[in-house]
Amino acid sequence: MKITREDVLRVAELAHLELTEAEVETYREQLDSILTYIDQLNRLDTQGVEPMAQSLAAGGDAQLREDVVAASPVAGDVLAIAPDPSKPYFRVPKVIDR
Amino acid sequence: MSANGWSVASIRSALTCRKVSARELAADFLSRIEKRNAELNAFLTLSPERAMAAADRVDGMVSRGEALPPLAGVPVAIKDVISTRGTRTTCGSRILENYVPPYDATAVERLERAGAMILGKTNCDEFAMGSSTENSAYGPARNPVALDRVPGGSSGGSAAAVTAGLAVAALGTDTGGSIRQPGALCGIPAMMPTYGRVSRYGLIAFASSLDRIGPFARSAADVATVLGVLAGHDANDSTSARVAVPDYAKEIAAPVKGLRLGIPDEYFGEGMDGDVRSRVEVAIERLKSLGCQTVPLKMPHSSYAIATYYIVATAEASSNLARYDGVRYGLRVPGTNLLEMYKKSRGRGFGPEVKRRIMLGTYALSSGYYEAYYLKAQKVRALVARDFLEAFQQVDAIVTPTSPVPAFRLGERTADPLQMYLADIYTVTGSLAGVPGISIPCGNTSQGLPVGLQIFGAHFQEARVLQLARAYEQAAS
């Protein structure tokens, strides 16, 4: 068993996911079986192999544009779909106690 | 006007000689959707006003005798992970149930500028995570060929819509096989372009180093025309390539005689359905009869692709999906403090597969496991990509089955997530490498279920892939 109940709770905490008791056990079993499958990667010797983070091919290299200020006239539309807008802000539960 | 009779070209000529108006076409397709969607669940949201406005623009051009753009009057469907201004975009998730994007994806903008009429948004696995469309929070889509079976996924709604004649073309997205596999299971051409070929601005991210947008249509020629409209650099997507776009619609007609086709051993091993194997073998013989040569290949890292993919994709997903916190958009479940609000919103807003992948990705990136999982997977990814680069020094294209099995029954594979992941065994390799690939129909199993033939090309060699697809299609018809 690679994954314990504590692992699941730790990861759920990191991922900001509230899980039910049933989910904790289901995910423990499933992650355990998936990670056991993934362990086959350790059969490969990858010494000296450069990790590949992106698949941009020759001629397709990312290029950064000039960083210039441009108008983005969507603030009203964005606030219109917010769960709790208070123009020009998003309102959230109190974060700091005094 | 037969149900499935329209193509990009036939619409164009019917409009030009005024046999039909774009408005009539749009109305006809919308009424077909109304009739069929209850059983197929291919569409989640319709955009009739938007389609009619586009139709009016096209009819205006016709009446003024103006030259028509390449997709004039073509009814299209858009996978619901691609942003459409003013039209709800859910990603198949409860967390975005009421999300209405304030802007259009570049792909959507380009389709409309080319005259396409956007009918609506198609069903998909939640955040494109799945291979059957059963992970949609809005119920599964069904395969028009066999209603008790899945259309594949994650772009199952788009594949079902085109197959059932509810749209002439559709956009899907492919991260590990999500365009090609549903194309294969429904029996229509479906293309994943090279990474960087099509702008992803406005595509709601799943795994950024893998996600691609591409077309479904009913012929290789239509795929080529739609791809031509979508392709090209976009200043709003730093990963979009500055590589010239060929005229795919023209280049598709080039002869395929003498092309070398690689047949990798690793794609013909155990676990493949017998009918799939024999259909694919017959298809390869047909390509040989067109003058192609076959070259046996070894791509030794193929069997590691699924394990690699499920680390890379989930790690990226855990990061990309961190944005759903109930603050700025989407579902908010109230909590007594901010952290509790985040956890409740995410815990209730995401479905089981999305949570599973966020957990897996978070684990793989967490302190103490990063090197063992994420870094290791990135290194193996480089080896999988190297297999492709080496292969393309010997061959012009690689031909394989798209999916090891034909369309499976609803519910058949949902119990075991790993079993579902293995549905992508032949498609994830090309996703990791960044190369283009198409799935084209190559006959049916004895039960009448479609089989897909996959053709991979080298980076930015979509034209070659399309030439082979078209040549095969013409020889088979």
Short description:
The complex is a heterodimer of chains A (98) and B (477). By secondary structure, chain A is mainly α.
Describe this structure in words.
The complex is a heterodimer of chains A (98) and B (477). Chain A is mainly α and 98 residues long. Chain A has three helices and two strands; from the N terminus they run αααββ. In chain A, strands 1-2 form a two-stranded antiparallel ribbon. The longest helix of chain A has 18 residues, at 21-38. Chain A starts with a helix and ends in an 8-residue tail after the last strand. The model of chain A has no long low-confidence stretch (mean pLDDT 89). In chain B, the strands form two sheets. Chain B has a six-stranded mixed beta sheet, sandwiched between helices. Chain B has a five-stranded mixed beta sheet with strand order 1-3-2-4-6, with helices on both faces. The longest helix of chain B is centred in the last third of the chain and has 24 residues, at 371-394. Chain B starts with 7 loop residues before the first helix and ends with a helix. Chain B has 477 residues and is of the alpha/beta class. Chain B has helices at residues 8-16, 22-40, 48-63, 106-113, 156-163, 180-186, 220-230, 248-251, 274-289, 305-320, 338-349, 352-365, 371-394, 417-421, 428-433, 462-476; strands at residues 43-46, 75-79, 117-122, 169-174, 190-192, 212-216, 260-264, 293-297, 397-401, 437-444, 450-456. The interface between A and B is large, with 54 and 76 residues.
